[in-house]
Amino acid sequence: MSLSNRLIIFDTTLRDGEQSPGASMTREEKLRIAKQLERLKVDVIEAGFAAASQGDFESIKSIAAHVRDSTVCSLSRANDRDIARAAEALAPAERKRIHTFIATSPLHMQMKLRMEPAQVLEQAKLAVRFARQHTDDIEFSPEDGSRSEEDFLCRVLEGVIAEGATTINFPDTVGYAVPEMFGATIKRLRERIPNSDKAVWSVHCHNDLGLAVANSLAGVMIGGARQIECTINGLGERAGNTALEEVVMALRTRQAYYNLTVGIDTTQIVAASKMVSQITGFAVQPNKAVVGANAFAHASGIHQDGILKARETYEIMRAEDVGWTANKIVLGKLSGRNAFKQRLQELGIEMESEAEVNAAFGRFKELADRKAEIFDEDIMALVSDEETAQENEYYRFVSLAQRSETGETPTAKVVFSMGGKEYSCDGEGDGPVDAMVNAIECQARSGAELVLFSINAISTGTQSQGEVTMRLSNAGRIVNGVGSDPDIVVASAKAYLSGLNKLHSKIERVNPQTE
Ligand code: KIV
Ligand code: ZN
């Protein structure tokens, strides 16, 4: 069986990535990421799970209408309702794929589905047959594949290929696989299934043991898979999925070994990473491969000396090849509207109307009055904050006064609006952030619990804006609020209110893995 040496990159940041607790995104945010994925030239964008919620349905529809260069895909469980919903959401797409799945491991079939294997086999075949009525591009996944029995997998996969599945995706749903075994299983399945050559084989690995990238590459090299499913920054359920940036740069840097090509424009990787991190509030660890702030930093004298003499001494990739640029002061107080608009375009930020550009320019001017140098990251944060505010306006930040002094109890006065009515509330606390939250809660009484607080400098230097993520939990729901400002207590107040807005919007989503 001869295999192509072109590998398909299937990005599932907007579906599996969004399943991370707190990572849910709005329609506008998803569209912005989808456009960046298109610039990155991913082959397939899994835009969501249409049957999960009305919001997910609308997001997929809007991505299907705007993305032209990548195939747009929706996940669906193996039932007619989910598949019909996926097909409806994908209708505007130039190229569309329906990805249907059902669990095949004994544990999942007995405990979760409460179905006999014969019923699962039948349902899988019926689902693919039904999906074929809507598109020719059908992907099927046997969920929990790496813990499924091989004989049963052979029957199911042969059956769905006979019904017209064009991609067979083999998932390591719980991140249990180890590379050599995982690759060998896919190889055996491909050898044992008589019609296996009628489909492209794919891998979908979770990172519970930190092996997602290694398993994916073994699935390709040993197993013969020609599609890798991955996410930006490795976002995803629990410990996440295969990180796109890692797997792509491994293939590219070790091209002579892998002898495989991908269509990715690697110079768009860092922009994609920053956008996903900014929108979801999931910070990228500094020592993260490829996209971490330290990935190309050399601290030790010996390394610095070596790099200056010949960069290859300690660098196996070039920072600019993945899109790292020196922090540039791009704009300042005196920059005009045209320069601002041009920079938005260069950053790939599309505004729908001139009124939107004007509003963004107004906010930029406000920021430039308070901060001498405006970096690309500042502009991205400004746009991100405004999109969040526009979508969920129940709570809105107005102003904050705060006081703290060694030996004194910190106090805060926060002015904010709730349901259109403005409130001015005072609070005190153990620290300035605690005082600010207490002030808001005097009136909001949300019952939310703060489960994670993180703050990052958006650019370099003490004049950098702080970007705060606050993960809030209430009645079993977890959301991430994000806010940025040169004043970190104000950034925290914005993040807290953005989290309350998300809790208030009560977007209910069904998780595909929960029947
Ligand atoms: O991890 C998994 O099994 C999945 C499937 C839906 C492909 O995400
Ligand atoms: Zn998954």
UniProtKB/TrEMBL annotation:
Q: Name one GO biological process term.
A: L-leucine biosynthetic process
What's its catalytic activity? 3-methyl-2-oxobutanoate + acetyl-CoA + H2O = (2S)-2-isopropylmalate + CoA + H(+)
The record's SMART domains line, in alphabetical order, gives: LeuA_dimer
Q: What is this protein called?
A: 2-isopropylmalate synthase
Q: Which family does it belong to?
A: Belongs to the alpha-IPM synthase/homocitrate synthase family. LeuA type 1 subfamily.
Q: Which residues bind Mn(2+)?
A: D16, H204, H206, N241
According to the record's subunit comment, the protein's assembly and interactions are: Homodimer.
Alphabetized, the UniProt keywords read: Acyltransferase, Amino-acid biosynthesis, Branched-chain amino acid biosynthesis, Cytoplasm, Leucine biosynthesis, Manganese, Metal-binding, Transferase
Locate the region Regulatory domain.
396-515
Name its co-factor(s).
Answer: Mn(2+)
Please name the gene that encodes this protein: leuA
Tagged with keyword Acyltransferase: yes
What job does this protein perform? Answer: Catalyzes the condensation of the acetyl group of acetyl-CoA with 3-methyl-2-oxobutanoate (2-ketoisovalerate) to form 3-carboxy-3-hydroxy-4-methylpentanoate (2-isopropylmalate).
